[in-house]
Every structure is written in C-alpha cells, then in structure tokens.
Amino acid sequence: MRLRNKPWAREKINAYPQYITPQPEGAKGRWNEIFGNDNPIHIEVGTGKGQFVTGMAKQNPHINYIGIEMYESVIITALDRLIEADLPNLKLLDVDGAELINYFEKGEVSRVYLNFSDPWPKTRHAKRRLTYKTFLSLYESIMPDEGEIHFKTDNQGLFEFSLKSFSEYGMLLNFVSLDLHNSGYEGNVMTEYEEKFSAKGQRIYRSEAKFQPRT
Ligand code: SAM
Q: What sign does the CA torsion over 101, 102, 105, 108 have?
C-alpha cells in the first residue's frame, strides 16, 4: 500500500523512477538485476529523511541499500539527498514495511536496519512495533537463514521490548550496547533522530540480532 498525502510529492516521486522504483511488486526477485550486480542487499524500514541509508551507501559501495518509507511527504527529502549524491547502490521505496513480502523474495535481503522506529508505548499497540514477532516473521521470510536485524533507538522501553522479542523468537544477539556513543563502536552512521536525541544528551541503544536456521 502506498500512502498518498501530497499530490506534489507523488509527482516528484514519479519523476525519478531511477531512484524510487515504480511498481515495486514487479521488482520482487529482481533486485540484483535492478542494481546490476550480485552484491548483498540491506534494507532500512522506516528510513525517514534518508540520512542513515545515504551515509551507509556512501560508506559501503559494495552493498546495495534500499530505504523504505511509507510517507510520500517524508521520502521526498530522502529523494533529494539521493538526487544530490547520485549513488548507484541506493534505491528508495515508498511502501508500507508491513507488506515487504510483496516486494522481496525469500533470501533476497541479507540485513534489515530499524532505526528509531516509532515506539508505540501503549501495550494495546505493541503489535505495531516494528520488532513485534509478526514483523520478525516477515523479515525472516525475505532473508536467508542467518539474516540480521540491526536496531538503534533512544527509547529504553522499546529497546527492552525488542531484545525480549528477538530472544523469544530464537534469534542470536551478537551485539548489545546501552550507550552506543560511549561504547567505542566504530563506523556508526547517525540518523536524523539519533543526532537530535543525542544532542539532548539521551543515550542511544543498539543491538544486532541474527536469525537461526530452522531445523
Ligand atoms: N529512521 C529515521 C531516523 O532514525 O531518523 C526516522 C525515524 S522516525 C521516528 C520513523 C519513520 O518510520 C517515520 O518516517 C515513519 O513514517 C516510518 N515508518 C513507520 N512505520 C513504517 C512502516 N510500516 N513502513 C515504512 N515506514 C514506516
């Protein structure tokens, strides 16, 4: 599903099919062909204005990145960044991350990034959190056996919930930091929200979790 909220945003998106893949259902199973190489594909769900995914694509030219953002009025800022940077290894998708299965084949995506996902703090909204078990199952369905989820947030409650969710799903935690910016971790690419929250003195939490082969 595409959320159409600003006609001018739609027009701009339509003008750049080389960056925001039109009719992405038709790209399912063809992403390596679209990128023109066999490099791994990493996606960010909820890419916002695209600072992270653009920075990652610049830093890692041998990885293909796809930034997924469901609001057209937001993704056009990411589009502006991409137009300026003109990176061959980055595409954007204006779709709902809850429908990833429509756009990717099993094994097509080797890593999912979730950065500062909406926390949905009310218990009755837990199913909307992008680390809820139904979302983990969705990510697993488009990744190889040992696909990874790399997650950052400033929200302690969401971080605690997510670690429990990864663990209950049977994922292996390879990395956990309760204070990323003071952890000595190198190569961090900041997101917009990360810059905003860390400037206010908030701690940034980060984890890497890996799916385990089903026996
Ligand atoms: N990742 C960016 C950052 O760290 O600066 C943006 C964080 S912002 C809090 C969360 C973003 O995720 C919003 O732009 C929102 O529209 C997007 N989002 C939330 N749920 C989504 C979904 N199911 N599919 C695609 N985008 C989604």
A: negative
pTM, two decimal places: 0.96
**Distances in Å between the alpha carbon of 141 and those of 32, 102, 108, 135?**
18, 11, 9, 10
Q: Return the best residue to mutate from 3, 56, 69 for the ligand 1 pocket (most ligand atoms within 8 A of CB).
A: 69
Question: Measuring from each residue's beta carbon to the nearest atom of ligand 1, which residues come in under 6 Å?
Answer: 45-48, 68-71, 74, 96-98, 115-118, 191-194
Domains and CATH numbers, the chain: 27-210 (3.40.50.150)
CA–centroid distance, residue 215 to ligand 1 (Å) = 34
Tens digit of pLDDT for each residue in 124-143? 999 999 999 999 999 999 99
Nearest CA to ligand 1 atom 20: 46
